[in-house]
Amino acid sequence: MLDKELNLELEEEFTSMVDLLKDVIKKEKLKNANIICFVPHEVSSLVYIGWEDGLIEDLRDCLRDLLPENKWKHHDEPDTPFRHNFYEHIRAKLIGNTSTTLIVKDGELYLGKYQDIYFYSPVYKNIPNQKIFLRITEF
After folding, report:
1. For the chain, first and last CA: distance in Å?
2. How far apart are CA 1 and CA 138, in angstroms?
3. Cα-flanking dihedrals φ and ψ of residue 48, to 5°?
4. Which pLDDT value is given to residue 82?
């Protein structure tokens, strides 16, 4: 078993994780393994979604339409850039998970033909430096 911590420098709301994960697989010379990914930040998640043109943009627009900013005011973090950010918490929960298990088979990340894994963080502008923890079990 191997534990790793990846530091992320986020530049946008959705960040593809596939290349980072492939780098870990290559660096650790994994042949057959499970990788458990855990996101420790409350307002971030992992999202499985296709990489087709426009899909992320449509998802972003959908989230903004479903959960607009400044509608709900009960949750408050005074004196922070996160005043009334309930919508960010719920967006992250609706579309993703804080934990997922990935399969490495014959040295390759085992995904569907059009599947990608994104790190979703609606707070990336205020918290660009985030982490993801990996627990790797080889077979």
Report:
1. 10
2. 7
3. -90, 125
4. 75
Cα within 13 Å of Cα(128), Cβ side: 5
Q: H/E/C letters for each residue in the chain? A: CEEEEEEEECCCCEEECHHHHHHHHHHCCCCCEEEEEECCCCCCEEEEEECCCCHHHHHHHHHHHHCCCCCCCCCCCCCCCCCCCHHHHHHHHHHCECEEEEEEECCEECCCCCEEEEEECCCCCCCCEEEEEEEEEEC
What are the pLDDT digits (tens) for 9-40?
Answer: 999 999 999 999 999 999 999 999 999 999 99
Contacts of 46 (CB under 8 A, 6+ apart): 17, 37, 39, 96, 97, 98, 99, 100, 117, 118, 119, 120, 132
Query: For the residues 124-139, what does the mean pLDDT come to?
Result: 96
Q: Within a 10 A sphere around the Cβ of 70, how many other Cβ atoms?
A: 10
Alpha-carbon torsion (21, 25, 31, 37), positive or negative:
negative
Nearest C-alpha neighbor of 14 from the set 116, 84, 136:
116
